[in-house]
Design a protein that fits this description.
heterodimer, A: seven-stranded mixed beta sheet, 7 strands, B: alpha/beta, globular
Chain lengths: 169, 361
């Protein structure tokens, strides 16, 4: 099985590091992974093209990305978005659409930096391709030692994401 | 088994250099390969193994430092991206003439000139056909994954010392910048001075009283000797061609049509094979791993087995296609497809090109 994912948003939202954490978590689960700035498939077999034109899952964090990538989700695929800042919602009927109030939930948790981990949690609820313990391992490997004390907070954020993802269609 | 890590291609190349016991790296930063020297600087290789890492004042200085260290029998490496590799061509021609082993990596970006910092494969001609002056060759290895970025460093050094010549690791901005998992080899010790003296009798290791002095140079004004030197170089290149061709075939057994692609384009074309097979098309992929020597015979064997046409897929306006056409020698159709200027073709575009240009309606 190969899961081809795009995570798209603004600079500073933690998009690249979310991709890296997902890739590292994939390795912890014995998956093959390939991370490209903007693109990142995760697979059980050798990943061939790291350059993708169609995605199994799109994680969308701003309107521009939604406009650009809604059409690129494969029929039957998943689109997960944060409604914060979205003025026109996704409209496709042939894909599964879910939302997660990532920005709001991060602010409720009192730390806007855990935004990307809430999103990651929501993604993993929809696409349970990686176990939580491997996400934790992935964090341990991708964060510098001095940030390891923040791992419990990050895992809590993953749980908040899992608990709050909503079906939109 | 070695250590498993998630790394960028450029970082894997740098770490592999430390672990395979390289003695020195001389370089000058340029996007998209600056992570090589950044990573090396961060890792304190001198403390780890005694490996010297130096940012030279220019690419010209760096390649001539490589020339000198290689002449002393040291495992020495440099890396750059396209415009920087242009600057190194004079040194590489001297290195070829003087038969000095070394490894250099080119993480190609779009050209000509300063071009763009995005991925490209438009330096195929430069690295496989020369670049510098004179009748010489460099072995060219084309990694298609982060793992191969790491694996080809020790392989490159083995080949460089086996044949006393430069080995180019030709990748591009996509392979250099993407992160994948990589299994890193165990740390190998650097050769001692005594081991270098014993293994490399040609190396400049310091003349002792009563011994013949050794000369490493590309210059010889005696035409007869220079002709013989050139003939000897060609015999060596023939040996390399006979022994060192490397390639990978994917889904070629029953293929009617075959993509020929290396590096990042091979990864994309592999996906095109999957898409084509899902539509019932008998397509396969030939991935040259050595671009020089070229897998000419592999193409010919595919024609013998009934392959009717080839699509050479490169991020260029058509360079490797010339080697594919030479191999086909009129016996099968071959054409080029590729996006340029830093744009990367998609698997769908590549399959579409195969259908339009090679398979026909």
């Amino acid at each position: 099985m190969t899961e081809e994912i795009i995570i798209a948003g603004f600079g500073g939202q933690g998009v690249l590091s979310m991709g890296k954490i997902l890739a590292y978590s994939g390795i912890m689960q014995d998956k093959e992974v390939s991370w490209m700035p903007s693109y990142g498939p995760v697979s059980d077999e050798r990943v061939c093209s790291p350059i993708l034109n169609a995605f199994d899952t799109a994680v969308i964090l701003n309107q521009q990305s939604l406009d650009k990538f809604e059409d690129k989700v494969k029929p039957g695929g998943y689109l997960l978005y944060d409604p914060n800042g979205i003025t026109h919602k996704p409209t496709r009927k042939d894909i599964h659409i879910y939302s997660i109030e990532g920005a709001q939930l991060a602010s409720d948790m009192g730390n806007s930096k855990v935004f990307n981990m809430i999103i990651l949690g929501a993604f993993l609820k929809l696409r349970p391709i990686i176990d939580n313990k491997n996400v934790e391992e992935g964090l341990r490997h991708s964060l510098p030692e001095r940030a390891h004390k923040l791992i419990p907070l990050n895992m809590q954020a993953v749980q908040v994401g899992m608990d709050n993802v909503k079906a939109e269609n | 088994m070695g250590e498993l890590k998630l790394m960028k291609g450029n970082e894997a190349l740098a770490e592999a250099a430390i672990r395979c016991g390289a003695d020195a790296y001389f370089g000058y930063p340029i996007t998209p390969q600056s992570e090589v020297i950044e990573y090396l600087s961060e890792q304190n290789p001198y403390e780890r193994t005694g490996m010297v890492v130096l940012q030279a004042e220019s690419e010209l200085a760096a390649i001539n430092m490589v020339y000198a260290a290689g002449a002393a029998g040291k495992h020495v490496m440099t890396s750059s991206s396209s415009p920087g590799v242009c600057l190194k061509q004079e040194g590489l021609a001297y290195i070829a003439g003087a038969e000095v082993p070394c490894v250099f990596a080119d993480v190609v970006r779009g050209g000509p000139g300063l071009g763009t910092i995005q991925p490209s494969q438009a330096d195929y001609f430069q690295n496989t056909k020369g670049g510098g002056n004179g009748d010489y060759r460099n072995i060219v290895l084309a990694p298609a994954s982060v793992q191969e970025m790491a694996d080809f460093v020790p392989l490159g050094f083995d080949l460089a010392f086996k044949y006393r010549m430069a080995v180019c690791i030709l990748s591009d901005g996509a392979i250099g910048q993407m992160m994948e998992k990589v299994v890193l080899p165990e740390q190998k010790a650097r050769l001692t001075e005594e081991e270098i003296k014993a293994k490399y009798p040609w190396a400049l290791t310091g003349r002792k009283r009563g011994t013949q002095h050794r000369v490493i140079t590309s210059l010889d004004l005696d035409s007869a000797r220079m002709e013989e030197h050139n003939r000897a170089l060609q015999r060596k290149y023939d040996e390399v061609t006979k022994n060192e061709v490397r390639y990978e075939m994917i889904d070629c057994d029953d293929a009617d049509y075959v993509f020929v692609a290396y590096g990042s384009s091979a990864r994309i074309a592999q996906k095109s094979v999957q898409l084509g097979r899902a539509e019932g098309l008998k397509v396969g992929l030939l991935r040259p791993i050595t671009l020089w020597p070229y897998p000419t015979k592999a193409i010919q064997s595919l024609i013998d087995k009934g392959v009717k046409g080839f699509l050479s897929v490169e991020l260029s306006c058509g360079q490797m296609i010339e080697d594919v056409l030479l191999a086909c020698n009129g016996r099968a159709k071959a054409e080029h497809f590729g996006r340029v200027g830093g744009i990367i073709h998609t698997p769908e575009e590549v399959l579409e090109a195969m259908k339009k240009q090679i398979i026909g309606e």
